[in-house]
Each structure stands twice: as structure tokens, then as C-alpha cells.
Write a structure and sequence with these properties.
Blueprint: E1 11-16, H1 20-32, E2 36-39, H2 48-51, H3 72-77, H4 87-100, E3 107-108, E4 113-119, E5 124-129, E6 134-142, E7 164-167, E8 182-186, H5 190-202, E9 205-210, E10 216-218, H6 226-233, H7 236-243, H8 264-277, H9 293-310, H10 314-320, E11 333-335, H11 338-341, E12 347-351, E13 357-360, E14 364-367, E15 370-373, E16 376-379, H12 388-391, E17 394-396, H13 403-406, E18 425-427, H14 440-461, E19 463-468, H15 470-484, H16 515-527, E20 533-537
Parallel strand pairs: 1-2, 1-6, 2-3, 4-17, 6-18, 7-16, 8-9, 8-16, 9-12, 10-11
Antiparallel strand pairs: 4-5, 5-6, 13-14, 14-15, 19-20
Length: about 550
């Protein structure tokens, strides 16, 4: 990056990413009187829901809750078609928001941020795009999302394969047809579990390669009813207020008793009822599922028995039964007919847990000593979550310190919001915040509000710089890990731990104490004169 003489900031704020975080930031900044530019690598807004267009893609949080709560007119006028709406409907919502609040004028599309370097003399960030433009700003905000950097394992022979290749997180915008084709899906995480039933209906033959079995609960999705819509829209503001302090940032019926406070008969009755109702609320059957391994085992075995009852072939059923991690310690999946798909004659399951894929060939791949031929391969192999998008930008703070260098042993933040040595740089839903362990729309709004309110506070007080104290950051990093290890989450080799990326440090990245608890902590920090942050006045 150029080291030319300091210049006054071009704008107050540069935002990276025009997903739901970026859109709400632009809205708040406009109302607060801050000048802002937003850069987005795609050719449209929507973030995650712009890129994730794979068959069956939909949110695993109910649409009435996975939506903005900052504007009453917006939430009253928008109507969702399904209880769990599909990608196209969520993207339409993002575009509606961009148009309704006239935000596109601040957004530069099809532009990547390559570098952001802090200039201490100018107290400004110099931000460089892939188009050669340099923008200076006082505040730099990474709003690129937690799961926006697709990851394909470095298979031997990847470049040799001559057939169609797709990644669920970077799906083509034009229609993809699998009709009459032999298709492979590699991966059975959330995107794979959603895509597999849809692809199986079209493909002549589908082969699913599974490294680790995942727990999945029926979504019980359905068309949105007027009755359910009205339930939410009547008193929406009050419901939103309650959601903000719930553990997962959403309204769910949680059973605040231990799995062992009831009889075996009652426990099974509750599991059956929750399974019948479906959704991720299944985990709320008892209050100790994620803290007590014995309690967790009772739920896990119930789900395994459900899998065995659904899948007709006993050998296939057993391969699909997760046995390597407690239920819920990897992101719980919800599905529409996933396990039933393996009863189809045109679907085969290949277990690669002990004998991984050896290599790709011109015609397909080799696994378990067998050579397979495919017309198309779908990589449902997930993301370099939480840090991947941040590391795609050459971010350098004080004294040229690279973010990658500071975080080489794992991400270090205060409140998941800022990191020491990087003044005036905010991260929306960053590592060390609840982020992916709650309703993302809720956590996005909370972070955006805190950032904007902080900037307003600084302007009123004549302050020019904010940075977390190193001691506060160290204490928060330790706290996040201590809280995580009071649960069963670290027992799973999950992307929460960075386990899906070779060489990535293993530590639990989200804050697991709950959305409501985190919000109260942030409120306490602000009330205590921004405890853990230090400010500097304008020079």
C-alpha cells in the first residue's frame, strides 16, 4: 500500500460487505450524519444470502424472527411466504431493505477490499480496493460475515476433474440442472443436508460422501399462515424486546429442568413431542443437554433411534448415526426429508471417516479403494468461518502489525467487537461475540447499534480514537474460553473450533454464554464509562 503523505479522511466510515450488517450500518450512519462508503465483492446486496443459492438453501431460524426489528413499518409491511423462508425470499427481503431506505447510493458493488492500513500520523485508515482506488476514513468496519469464505479441501487431482464443479457457498446465479446426471455431494453439514434431498429428486444417481455424521432435526417447514403472521405482528416490538435478552436471541419454548429430573417415560415423551414439532428448539427439551454428557446422551440416542427407524437399510442407518460428538455441539441441522432420502434407489452413502477421498480424477474420484465417475461434483465443504473473511484483507494496525500475525494463535478481541493495536476498527459479530450461536439478525442489530452509538458518543465528547485495552482484551479472551469449557461444545471437532481448516488454531470462537447475557455485559461496559476501552481526544 502507498505511504503517501497523510490526507484528511475521504469519508467517516468504510464498510466491507453489503449483507444484513452492512445495510443496517448504512441506515444508522445516514440517520446519525456520518458519511460512509460500503464495498461489496458481489454484484448485489444480501451477503450470505447472495452467495448461498444451492438447492434447498433456506434459513434455520424462523423468518418472523430472522428479520430486522429496527423499523416498525418495515416489519409490518413485509410478508414471508414460509415459516422457514428460502434463499430467494431472504435475498428479496435484503433488496427490499436496500431500496426502501435508499441505501444503494452508498454501495460500490463488484469491488473487493484488498488492504486496510492504519496511518497513526493521520489517525486514519487507508483502504485499497482491487480496482486501484484508495479511500481514507476515520473508522474501518469489517462486516463481511462469519460464513462467507467458502472452503474446498485441497484434494489431490482437483484440477484434473473435467466434469461440473460447484460449491454450496458460491453457487452459480444461472439455473443448474442435474437431470439425468450422476452427481456426488461431498459433505453432510448444514448445506449438504439441505441440498441432498433436492438434488436426489433430479439426479439419475446421487452419491453422498460423509466424513462425519451430523445430527439433524425435522424443520416441519410450512407455508406461512395469516394466523401465525398476525401472532407476530400484533405486538412485534414487545416480542423483539424480549428476544434480545433470550439465550439464543429468539423466542423459543425452553424447558428449564434437567433431563434427570423426570422419569425415563416422561423424558421420552418430551423428546417425541419436540421431534414432532421439529426445529432447532429440540435442543431446549431440557436445560442440561449442552452441559451434562449423560443428559446429552439420552437425547443423542433418541435421535439415533429415530434415524434407525427412518432409514430402511440398517448398515446405512448406522453410518448416518452420529457417534463422534455430543448432540448440539456442532451446529444442529434442520431438514426436510434428509434421512428419508437414503431410502431412494438412486442414492448411495459412502463413509469416508476412516478412508478419506484419495484423489480426484478426470472422470470422478477415488475413495475407499473404489473409483467413481460423476457428471457433477458438489462440494458442501463449508467455510473458513469467523476469521477467513477478515484474513482475506491485508489489515495492518499500529506499527504495521498484521491482523494475521496478531491472531496467529487464534482470534483475540474485546467483546468480539475490536482488537487492541487496531484503533477505530470494528468487527461486526466477530470472534468472541455470540455471532453464529444466536439469531444473527438480533446479534447484528445489537453490534451495529453499539458501534453507531459509540461513534455518536465520541463525536459529542470531541474524541477521535477508540481502542480496547490489552488487559481487557486478554481477560475477555480467557473468559470466552472458560465459558466454552463449562459446556460440551469443545468436545466436537467443529468449525466453531476451526477444526475444518488444516493448521487453524483450535479454540472456541463464538461467545457461548448467551445473546442476552452478552447484551447485558455490553450495556454494563457502556454504563461504566466504556470499561475496557480507552479514548483519545482530537488533536
Amino acid at each position: 500500500m502507498s505511504t503517501s503523505a497523510p490526507k484528511l479522511p475521504t469519508v467517516d466510515v468504510v464498510i466491507v460487505g453489503a449483507g444484513f450488517s452492512g445495510l443496517y450500518l448504512l441506515h444508522r450512519f445516514e440517520k446519525a450524519g456520518f458519511s460512509a462508503r460500503c464495498f461489496e465483492r458481489g454484484d448485489g446486496v444480501g451477503g450470505t444470502w447472495y452467495w448461498n443459492r444451492y438447492p434447498g438453501a433456506r434459513c434455520d431460524v424462523e423468518s418472523m424472527q430472522y428479520s430486522y426489528g429496527f423499523n416498525e413499518d418495515l416489519q409490518q409491511e413485509w410478508n414471508w411466504p414460509e415459516k422457514f423462508s428460502a434463499q430467494a425470499d431472504i435475498l428479496a427481503y435484503a433488496n427490499h431493505v436496500a431500496d426502501r431506505f435508499d441505501l444503494r447510493k452508498y454501495i460500490t458493488l463488484e469491488t473487493e477490499i484488498r488492504a486496510a492500513h492504519y496511518d497513526e500520523a493521520a489517525r486514519a485508515w487507508r483502504v485499497e480496493t482491487d480496482k486501484g482506488e484508495t479511500v481514507t476514513c476515520k473508522y474501518f468496519i469489517m462486516a463481511g460475515g462469519c460464513i462467507s469464505t467458502a472452503q474446498v479441501p485441497k484434494f489431490e487431482g482437483l484440477a484434473d476433474y473435467k466434469g461440473e464443479k460447484y460449491h454450496t457457498g458460491n453457487w452459480p446465479h444461472e439455473p443448474v440442472s442435474f437431470k439425468g446426471k450422476r452427481v456426488a455431494v461431498i459433505g453432510t453439514g448444514s448445506s449438504g443436508i439441505q441440498a441432498i434431498p433436492v438434488i436426489a429428486e433430479e439426479a439419475s444417481h446421487l452419491t453422498v460422501f460423509q466424513r462425519q455424521a451430523n445430527f439433524s432435526i425435522p424443520a416441519r417447514n410450512m407455508p406461512m399462515t395469516e394466523e401465525y403472521t398476525n401472532f407476530w405482528k400484533d405486538g412485534y416490538a414487545e416480542k423483539r424486546a424480549e428476544m434480545r435478552y433470550q439465550p439464543n436471541g429468539m423466542l423459543r419454548e425452553a424447558n428449564d429442568v434437567s433431563a434427570f429430573e423426570v422419569s425415563e417415560e416422561e423424558r421420552q415423551r418430551i423428546y417425541k413431542q419436540r421431534w414432532k414439532e421439529g426445529t432447532g428448539a429440540f435442543l431446549g427439551a431440557f436445560n442440561d443437554i449442552l452441559t451434562n454428557k449423560a443428559a446429552n446422551d439420552t437425547m443423542a440416542e433418541f435421535v439415533r433411534n429415530k434415524i434407525r427407524s427412518i432409514v430402511k437399510d440398517p448398515e446405512t442407518a448406522e453410518i448416518l448415526c452420529p457417534k463422534t460428538h455430543p448432540i448440539g455441539t456442532k451446529r444442529i441441522c434442520i431438514d426436510s426429508g434428509y434421512y428419508q432420502t437414503f431410502n431412494r434407489e438412486n442414492v448411495e452413502l459412502v463413509d469416508i471417516s476412516e478412508k478419506p477421498i484419495e484423489r480426484l480424477t478426470e472422470q470422478g474420484l477415488v475413495a475407499n479403494g473404489r473409483e467413481f465417475e460423476f457428471d457433477a461434483i458438489v462440494f458442501a465443504t463449508g467455510f473458513d468461518a469467523m476469521t477467513g473473511t477478515l484474513f482475506n484483507v491485508d489489515i495492518r494496525g499500529r506499527d504495521g502489525l498484521a491482523l494475521k500475525k496478531k491472531w496467529e494463535a487464534g482470534p483475540r478481541t474485546y467483546l468480539g467487537l475490536m482488537t487492541e493495536s487496531f484503533p477505530n476498527m470494528f468487527i461486526i459479530t466477530g470472534p468472541g461475540s455470540p455471532s453464529v450461536k444466536g439469531n444473527m439478525m438480533n446479534t447484528i442489530e445489537q453490534h451495529v447499534d453499539m458501534v453507531t452509538d459509540t461513534m455518536i458518543h465520541m463525536r459529542k465528547q470531541g474524541l477521535d480514537l477508540i481502542e480496547p485495552d490489552l488487559t481487557a482484551e486478554d481477560e475477555w479472551v480467557d473468559h470466552v474460553q472458560i465459558v466454552a469449557h463449562t459446556t460440551l461444545f469443545p468436545q466436537a471437532n467443529s468449525w466453531y473450533m476451526g477444526a475444518n481448516i488444516p493448521g487453524k488454531p483450535r479454540l472456541f470462537m463464538p461467545y457461548i454464554a448467551g445473546v442476552g447475557s452478552y447484551r447485558r455485559t455490553c450495556e454494563d461496559v457502556v454504563a461504566d464509562n466504556y470499561r475496557g476501552f480507552h479514548f483519545e481526544a482530537k488533536r
